[in-house]
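Researcher: Structure prediction, please.
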Amino acid sequence: MNISPGLIVPPLTPFDAQLRVDEPRLQAQVNYVVDVCDASFVIAAGVEAQEYSCLTLAQRKALIDRTIEYVAGRRPVVAGISHPSFRVALELADYAARAGAQAVQILAPLRPFGGAPSEHDLVSYFTRIAAETELPIMLYLNAGPGADVSVEATVALAEIPQIHYLKESSRDLARVSRLIQQIDHAGLARYYTTMQMLLITLELGGAGATMPPPAAALGRQLINAWQAGDQTRARALQQQFALFPAQWMRHGLTPVMKAAMEWLGVSAGEPYPPYSALSGLDREMLERYLHTTDLQHQGTHHA
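Model: Predicted structure follows.
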């Protein structure tokens, strides 16, 4: 395992007027993630901010293909294969392996017929997938779209040998600090958190974080500052995440990040309909705030 702290970054998904993936703009998103955010791993069609759930299975496969093509070997690609059916997840895993992905990411699923899965359900689900794919697995924990997995069940899942990485979305410091000890420090898997938890994750010995662009550009600067021993700058960068994106999250993460990318001049278009783009006073307030962050230095370069 790579022991250096890093970033797992999902390029945003732009759509054209016919709601197809806009491939030229997707390529620009991928280049931003690689060249500006310096992603350690690039996620293909794997997190909700990428709007993959709006796509058909064929479109998800095509998005995996295009992402791998545009990354062009510059970074490892982790393909999203999340689905309540382990058989569909395996179909996507097989496709991702043939397409050249280096790992797969799977959201811990809810029961398809309703209700929270038991620890046995989850271990059985991931064990079945691990038995039939050779790719390393990134376990994605995000209560809401996925299951709310207990600490004990998370440790049990991390004990599955093919699970090499975990992405934690809880922002619960007590949980995160415990699992960094029981999973990352114990050598079971590398443990990643979120932008709001990045600095404390690094201080606790975690692996880094997952976040979409352009937040990931700030995340990369934070990691670089922390590695250089510049704690003052690392703290200042972490403080920029206090309002961005939290102040605008009632609109959803994707509209906020797409608006921020538009401000930078690297358009990811609007959210998949019927969901609305950030607009009006809220968009103006976001843009004013971005001018106060370290992203301001990128605007002219990418316009």
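Model: The CA atoms of residues 140 and 292 lie 32 Å apart.
Researcher: Thanks, that helps.
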